[in-house]
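hey so u asked for the seq, here:
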Amino acid sequence: MEEASPQLLTGVYSGTAMLNRLVSRKGRKVGLIVNKGMEDFHRMGRAVQSYLGYSYSDRLHLNTHKYDPPLVPREWTRGVTERIDMFGNVVIPLYEHEVEPAVRELVEEGVEAIVISLLHSYKNPVHERRVRDIARETIRKMGKDIPVFASVDYYPVRKESHRTNTTIVEAYAADPSRHTLEKVNQRLREKGTKFDIRVMASHGGTISFRANELARTLVSGPIGGVVGAKYLGEHLGVSNIACSDIGGTSFDVALISQGDFTIKTDPDMARLVLSLPLVSMDSIGAGTGSFVRVDPYTKSIVLGPDSAGYRVGVCNPDGGVDTITVSDCHVVLGLINPDNFLGGQVKLDPKRAYEAVKAQLAEPLGLSVEDAAFGVIQLLESQLRNYLESMITGKGYSPTQFVCFSYGGGGPLHTAGYVKGLGFEDVWVPAWAAGFSAFGCGAADYEYRYDMTLDINVPDGATEGQKAEAAGVLQRAWSELQDKVTEEFVKNGFSYDDIRFRLSHGSSKNLG
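ran it, structure tokens below
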């Protein structure tokens, strides 16, 4: 590392520390200020959150629906009186005298950050920014150093649940993760690197770890594979690519059409609806680490959706796994070299795998161990093939229009099986399939993406003045977003001339 570090040109970090902090609910103690009367809306959440992440069968049963604990419990939520309507008009002025007591109570409760999210603040931010300023002044007078996050400063978009959740994630998980990234960057500097690390962002670019909106890096690993496929496609002259990534836990599919991928503006992560631009990917819980069981009633093989993940399976004596996995079937069939797994760092035990497959699968089904293991592989590849085909045809395309890129740790093992009969134009498996997502992170541009919701009234028969006013709204919004991007790049040593701007509209709705 000491020899290589001074020669490196750049470095990109991609990991799950922030997402793990969110999923395990081990983030900051955050206080929340909302409209009076709306104190329960974050705790209640959107109805869809009650079954996000469930299998289809579980979604059919109401008794399986549950709400996860809110990131901010009710006792750390305060309301202040104000109301701005959907058009941005002030209906009820802000009762400023209610803000300071609310902030003091939260600080005395021991919160480590305060989030402010008021209704329709994306249309008119005046009240939310005033609450922010009062909160900061109150905290200063109390002699505390607590960050304040106003949703309009981070995610000024429609849908209050999405906007509030995302701003809370910024305070709860993203900002604390910044300290981890600072330590990583410092260690690399000590090793001789001459750059600051970038972080893979969910929209397909990389951003600085000092970026204002760090929650945009919540999901980064799988995104790298799609970016890498796009990069290779550009250099190999392929514009339509079906990306398929099979790892130990999941099978991820994304489409690149006409040389670009689709962005979701309202994704869900960790059973929360969010306002984060995310490369559109579809996933199922099927991978090489998926558990294999026999249904006691139908005597059929059931795969997953739970997985052994990095523990591999029963074949790994140090994994602590008792239920057989797809990888155990690989070992039984000789598809995995037990002495060279992870370059020999993890030694697998074929005998353990054989005995476990025999007891848990072959004997209950009345099959030989080899036939039972082969049946698991066939079933997995059939599920992957059906899912891949449905993801392509469901979007109005045909597999014959695409080249399939297959990567991930399980890509080389299963590609031939799950693409069989689909009629792809071609199928490519990179030689470094297991590390392809890391390659994609390195190929990603240094890129910031900011969003804003606008409502523009252009009536039928609009006058030139009304049209000019509508154009002015667009121009002011563009200038504001451009200033935010410029600020981020300048903060990291770039000049205005180094920046290339690209305007796009993620979604639009017309009324009339």
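DSSP finds 14 helices and 21 strands in the chain. The CA atoms of residues 212 and 475 lie 23 Å apart.
lmk if thats what u needed
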